[in-house]
Structures are given as C-alpha cells and as structure tokens.
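Action item from last meeting closed. Structure (267 res):
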C-alpha cells in the first residue's frame, strides 16, 4: 500500500540461505516547522515554535494539537486560522485578543520523532497543567471492553500493517466503540494529531473516552492525555515510572501490557 505517509522501495531480503529482490514499504519521516502568529504589545509577531520530525498528513491537526497539549492555548476558539504554508510548514494564527503563554513559547525547540520532551528548554517546562479536571477518578473499566480494543485498532490501522513503522493513537468511547485514529512515525505526533482533530471539532474535554496507544506509555503521552481530559489510557506496551506517577496525580486510569486477554492495571 502506498499513501502520502509511505514510500515503496526495493530491498534485498536474505531468506532461506539466499538474497532475493523484493519490494518494501517504509513510513515517511520529514520535518514539520510549526509557526505561530499573534499580537504582543499591539504589534504582530510571527514565531517559529517547533520543528518536529513527523509522518506527513494531518499537519494542521498536529499543529493545533501541539500548541494545545503544550499549554500555549487552552481552547480552539483562541485560534483564528491555520494554514499549510508548504509541504513541511504550517502557520497557526491566534485571535487578535489572545496572548499566548510566553513561558511555553520559550521552548523554541527541535524534537525528534521518538521524543517530544527531550527538547524542552528546562525540566520545569515539562509540567504542563491541564485546564480539565478528570472527575471520574480511578475508573475500573469493563475488562471485556479493554481486551477487545487491539483487534478493533488493527482493523483501522492499515498503514501500520504494511510498514510496521508507525505508531497509532486511537480513541474509543467507554463502551469500546471506535471514534478516531491517527498514526505517525512519532508516538507524540500521533497523539497530537488525534487530540488536534478533536480540538478542531470542538469536542473537548474527552472525558468519556478511552485512549489506546500502540506502544508504550511515556510521561509526555500521559501529560497530553491529561491536557485533553482523557480518563483512561491503555497501552500495548509498558508505562514508565514517571508516566505512572503523573497518571496517579491526574486521576487517570492507566493500563499497560495489553496482550490477548491479559493486561496490567497500574492505577
């Protein structure tokens, strides 16, 4: 399968004692420059706020989701417009009366596809505080719903099947019905795209939903889930110790190592 997110190449595969020519499909990874335009002291300001390595596609969702989960804005109504300036550049323009969080803008960083936190200017900048309080603390979801999620994800995740190189973030309602899916070579980008898509639709907070992560649950993914008010996070892989700590503080129900009919309920 080919798409704007993948590229077909020729490789030599060693199998059964010999090399054979075959086709393979790789996930595309390219930089995205996110710019933001706003007014400060009555004067227009245009600032580069991030360069992130991502899989092309849903760039405006990624840009909106990023500035939201980073705490630069708190609501979609604060955004005046979004533009795709070029294949690898977007511009988010804020409403004239909105002054973004200057401390968050100090980050001005480069992030790789594997880590969205490592470019933070300081450790203090990591602790973004959500505007949404998760009311349904310590939810124990129906186990039959949880174990059904990976199969539902695989039916949606066609690109992942063909490349094996994309992370997925998927949203389900509390009964396990599929809502939305986004994929990216960077796990944090996939989640920003997903949250951005909901933000643009003005569906916030995501207080009656389950987030399924195709890999591990890192601190920054729990932070982004908290920013969107998501009460349940389920990961196919393991959570980190800091992710668990933040989940407890945020009232998020955290599940990991979901394999078959087994999983670990961490908090």
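Sequence:
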């Amino acid at each position: 399968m080919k798409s704007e997110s993948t590229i077909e190449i020729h490789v030599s595969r060693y199998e059964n004692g010999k090399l054979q020519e075959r086709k393979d499909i790789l996930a595309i990874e390219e930089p995205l420059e996110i710019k933001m335009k706003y007014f400060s002291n009555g004067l227009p300001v245009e600032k580069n706020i991030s360069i992130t390595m991502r899989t092309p596609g849903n760039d405006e969702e990624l840009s909106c989701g990023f500035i939201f989960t980073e705490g630069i804005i708190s609501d979609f109504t604060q955004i005046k417009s979004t533009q795709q300036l070029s294949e690898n550049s977007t511009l988010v323009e804020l409403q004239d009366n909105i002054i973004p969080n200057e401390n968050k803008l100090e980050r001005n960083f480069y992030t790789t596809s594997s880590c969205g936190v490592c470019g933070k200017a300081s450790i203090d900048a990591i602790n973004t505080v959500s505007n949404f309080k998760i009311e349904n603390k310590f939810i124990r979801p129906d186990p039959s719903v949880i174990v059904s999620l990976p199969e539902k994800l695989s039916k949606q995740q066609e690109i992942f099947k063909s490349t094996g190189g994309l992370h997925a973030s998927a949203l389900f309602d509390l009964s396990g019905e599929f809502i939305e899916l986004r994929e990216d070579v960077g796990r944090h980008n996939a989640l920003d795209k997903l949250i951005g898509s909901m933000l643009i639709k003005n569906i916030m907070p995501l207080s009656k939903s389950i987030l399924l992560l195709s890999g591990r649950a890192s601190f920054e993914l729990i932070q982004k889930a908290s920013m969107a008010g998501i009460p349940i996070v389920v990961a196919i892989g393991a959570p980190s110790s800091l992710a668990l700590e933040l989940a407890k503080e945020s009232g998020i129900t955290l599940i990991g190592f979901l394999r078959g009919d087994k999983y670990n309920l961490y908090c």
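Note appended to the action item: Residues 143-156 form the longest helix (14 residues).
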